[in-house]
Amino acid sequence: MATTADIRNGMCIEYNDQLYTIVQFQHVKPGKGPAFVRTKLKNITTGRTNEVTFTAGHKINETRVERRPYQFLYKDDLGYHFMHRETYEQISITEELINNVNLLKEGGEVEMVVHADTETPLYAELSPTVVMEITYTEPGVRGDTSSTSSLKQATIETGATIMVPLFCNQGDKIRINTVDNSYMERVKE
Question: What is the pLDDT confidence band of residue 155, given thresholds at 50, 70 and 90?
């Protein structure tokens, strides 16, 4: 059993009979009254975030989770199939358990977060950035930057659409931030 002094970002805890990860926390010592810890918790099953305040020294129930490297194989009517990178064990999970599923392509690597005691997969997250090829975009017209944002829509190889700068063309490889699905840079071959 851990206390509020053990809280750190990324820690998985059980709160109100559900699993949460700690996204953010702050120890606060007001001038008057007891110290407390303000946290932002993300529900693993629903993805919703809650702000919860614990008094200093409050006991919290830490849950053991393991992060394992998996490679995406294919998708069918049973779900998304992954293979462990070291043991070659295969598992399938539903779409709801994958963060940013629209940026997942065959052969892509994910980090699967698994409940250590029950061996059940909790969620899969992509690496912070992925490299994708633009399969379709309108050509950028020279001098067409009069609007406040000089971005245009582009379809990438997974079928997702993101906003890219006007100088990006069909066939270009770009780096995408998987946290907010935003363009980062053009990748040289």
Answer: very high
Q: Does domain 130-187 have CATH number 2.40.50.140?
A: yes
User: For residue 58, how far is the Cα from the chain centroid?
Assistant: 29
Read off the pLDDT of each residue in 61-72 and give the average, rounded to a whole number.
92
Whole-angstrom Cα distance, residue 74 to residue 29? 51
CATH architecture observed for domain 2-62: Roll (2.30)
Q: Give the Cα separation of 175 and 177 in Å (integer).
A: 7
Sorting pLDDT into bands at 50, 70 and 90, what band is 69? very high
The span from the CA of 93 to the CA of 98, in Å, is: 8
Reply yes or no on whether the pLDDT at 137 is more than 80.
Answer: yes
* Pair of tokens at residue 126: 């992509």
Beta pairing class for 173-177 and 129-137: antiparallel
Residue limits of CATH 2.40.50.140 in the chain:
65-126, 130-187
pLDDT band at 135 (very low <50, low <70, confident <90, very high): very high
For the 65-126 domain, the top CATH level (class) is: mainly beta
Burial class (CB in 10 A: 0-12, 13-18, 19+), 166: middle
Is 39's pLDDT higher than 80? yes
Instruction: Tell me which DSSP letter residue 35 carries.
Output: -
| CB contact set of 88 (below 8 Å; sequence gap of 6+) | none
